[in-house]
Amino acid sequence: MEISGKIIQVLDLQQGTSKAGNAWKKQEYVLETQDMYPKKVKFDFFGDRVDQYKLAIGDEVTVSFDLESREFNGRWYTDVRAWKADKAGAATAAPMSSAEPQAPYASVAPAASMATPAFDAPAGDESDDLPF
């Protein structure tokens, strides 16, 4: 799953040692969507991804994440565990080589029979307007 928005809060880094003696760390962020009705979503990076994805307040990002729920003592808890974050404006695609055409069949001129005819609407008659 993916969600896009702006980082509005960076929460404190959490770290510790598991019962098995392994060190762990988790960094949580709050993202606000740019929809008509903005939503706030808290997500986290866990383990090595904490160092791999350093985000700051104000960053426009697209976050890829998994949802995971677990039960503990009769209550359910849900995590939004991110595994990738792409900052807006970052070049993610490889540049196209100059040998590749920009559009398929770009050098082929359209045939005269394929030209779109122009239609004139009757003056002042707006009853035929489509809703889209």
Summary keywords:
132 residues, mainly beta, OB fold (Dihydrolipoamide Acetyltransferase, E2P), six-stranded antiparallel sheet
Number of helices: 1
Radius of gyration: 25 Å
How much strand? 35-45%
> Could you give the order of the helices and strands?
EEEEHEE
Q: What would CATH call the architecture of the domain at 2-87?
A: Beta Barrel
Instruction: Please name the CATH topology of the domain at 2-87.
Output: OB fold (Dihydrolipoamide Acetyltransferase, E2P)
Sequence stretches where pLDDT stays below 50 over 5 or more residues: 92-109
CATH hierarchy class name of the domain at 2-87: Mainly Beta
Q: Helix/strand/pairing class, anyone?
A: mainly beta
Global outline: globular
Summarize the main sheet.
Answer: 6 strands, antiparallel
Number of β-strand runs:
6
Distance between the ends: 31 Å
Walk me through the structure.
- By secondary structure, this protein is mainly beta.
- It has a domain at 2-87: OB fold (Dihydrolipoamide Acetyltransferase, E2P) (Beta Barrel).
- The protein contains one helix and six strands.
- The chain has one helix at residues 49-52, and strands at residues 2-10, 14-17, 23-32, 40-46, 60-72, 75-87.
- Strands 1, 2, 3, 4, 5 and 6 form a six-stranded antiparallel beta sheet that branches.
- The longest helix is centred in the middle third of the chain and has 4 residues, at 49-52.
- The chain starts with a strand and ends in a 45-residue tail after the last strand.
- 7% of the residues are buried.
- Residues 92-109 have low confidence and may be disordered.
